[in-house]
Design a protein that fits this description.
about 210 residues, mainly alpha, 3-stranded antiparallel beta sheet, 10 helices
Length: about 210
């Protein structure tokens, strides 16, 4: 028995296109996305636009108030500092739980990140970065840790958009993640915790 594969819907394709543009910084935070303009730009019906925008609102990449156009979500440096305040203990818990282990899925995400061409959209770096950290969280085997980490995903991705300025040389970002995975893989727990602290200590491109 074979199961047919269905092509990506117009809603899914539009949501993917807009997501890439947001996560590559092409559409800046705070930008308004009028349905009529998107409908004309992409040649799709307004209900399709409305559904695609709803997908990104659900993901936290867009915000929308009643009777207003959707906007790309904005996160301030203060927001991101608070995000890291919450992320850091979760990442440290993850690292100490995995100390002395290699996580194949995280290594695979790092390899994909390293293989991206220099002109690849920044959104692809964001995707592999998220895949790497998510793989570490999943490897711990705690559904509650996964849920907590998942709640931070949207703001984390929006924060990573800002990092394209900090990491104009993408090899530096790859090297930092390689160091992190190596430290976790070697252990012991204290060294893994220290690696997390060093990894999360960076500017958000605000200076």
């Amino acid at each position: 028995m074979t199961l047919p594969l269905h092509p990506v819907s117009a809603v899914g394709a539009l949501a993917d296109a807009l997501r890439r543009r947001v996560l590559s910084g092409e559409i800046a935070p705070g930008t308004t996305l009028p349905e009529q303009e998107l409908s004309a730009l992409y040649g799709v019906a307004r209900p399709t636009v409305r559904e695609a925008l709803a997908v990104l609102v659900h993901e936290g990449l867009l915000r929308r108030e009643r009777h207003r156009s959707a906007q790309v979500a904005e996160v301030t440096v203060s927001d991101l500092d608070d995000l890291m305040f919450v992320r850091r203990p979760l990442e440290e818990l993850t690292a100490t739980s995995l100390a002395g282990r290699r996580v194949g899925e995280a290594d695979a995400a790092l390899a994909r990140m390293a293989a991206l061409p220099a002109d690849a959209p920044w959104s692809e770096m964001v995707a592999e970065h998220m895949a790497l950290h998510q793989a570490l969280v999943v490897a711990v085997g705690s559904p509650r840790l996964e849920r907590l980490y998942g709640m931070l995903a949207a703001e984390t991705r929006l924060g990573l958009v800002r990092l394209r300025v900090v990491y104009s040389d993408r090899h530096v970002l790859v090297a930092e993640h390689a160091d992190l995975l190596d430290a976790i893989g070697r252990g012991p727990e204290e060294a893994a915790r220290e690696a997390v602290a060093a990894h999360l200590d960076h500017s958000w491109g605000d200076h």
